[in-house]
Amino acid sequence: MSTLFDLTGKTAVAIGGNSVLGASMAKGLSAHGAKVAIVGRNLEKANSVVEEIKANGGEAKAFQADVVSRESLQQAAADIEAWSGGWDILLNAPGKNSATPFFELDMEEWDDIMDVNLKGIVITCQIFAKKMIEQGRQGSIINISSVSSTTPLSKVFTYSVSKAGLNSVTQFLAREFASDGIRVNAIIPGFFPAEQNRKILSEERIESIMTHTPMNRFGEPEELQGAAVWLASDKASSFVTGTMIRVDGGFGSMTI
């Protein structure tokens, strides 16, 4: 049992690993032995996460890429391969949101959010999963979804649609890659607002969220680490694929 969650010898690629939640999960993977590539548009933030990982005895390196750019992802993949020889874990954690009301939504904003939250994940999997298969590496792909993917939330129309699409992508790729020994799952986080997001949450919105969250609190980024490490481990979750793991304080179990 002591080695059930041991990721020593594994390399994890964390797309969006410079975000608050992505960084926390990347740190969790590192703490269990994985070598971690932090990939993001903001290289300064990515390097900051790398320094934190190194300060705790882990091995990591930052790489710059934009999920809406196939060319930048291909370059990042080549650079990561040169650094580590390949990867066994792919964590997809980029995300973009907007509270634009439906009738005010223009297609430029729609495309922007869809490009990051959905198309970007498809492109990332085309590049990184293909390389895993070519190298004969069995492993795990972990997509970060949202509670709004199953029950659409008010005020976040495009985001909710994009995350519902991501769930479908997750299940399709789980079937597609199973014969290659690659498991594909998604984590459905509840409300884990970063400090900057807390400032834009109205008291009314927070009250509504708490009313629908049995544990009556926001989640902390570190509380996503357990699910990420479990799904990354080919020992602990070897027969788990195509599933959505809720880490939401009970939000998904509430009705009235």
TrEMBL record:
It comes from the Bacteria. NCBIfam families: PRK08277.1. This is SDR family oxidoreductase. Keywords: Oxidoreductase. Transmembrane segments: none annotated. Pfam families: adh_short_C2 (PF13561). GO terms for biological process: carbohydrate metabolic process. Belongs to the short-chain dehydrogenases/reductases (SDR) family. One of its GO terms (molecular function) is oxidoreductase activity, acting on the CH-OH group of donors, NAD or NADP as acceptor.
